[in-house]
Amino acid sequence: ADALGTADKAVMRWTFSGTHNGEFMGVAPTGKQVSVSGMAIAKIASGRLAEEWAVWDLHGLMQQMGAIG
Question: b/e string for 17-32 if b means 16 or more Cβ within 10 A?
């Protein structure tokens, strides 16, 4: 993961990996190993998270779980 920031904004690039052991978005557990990457921009106000905008590869995750082709 990478993170950059200023006093009022932070940008993060991340990767999540794990095993699909529970239902996710209506897809029954498959036991498959999955990995997905994403990025987020966070707005900080008074030292706290005020807003966040995120994008991540849901399509790739669904493919890894076998939910789509």
Answer: eeebeeeeeeeeeeee
pTM of the model as a whole: 0.78
CA distances from 48 to 45, 54, 67 (A): 5, 17, 37
Provide the b/e sequence for 35-48 (b: ≥16 CB within 10 Å).
ebeeeeebeeeeee
| CA distance linking residue 60 with residue 66, whole number of Å | 10
pLDDT tens digit sequence for 29-64: 999 999 999 999 999 999 899 999 999 999 999 999
Instruction: Name the residue with tokens 């998270």.
Output: 49
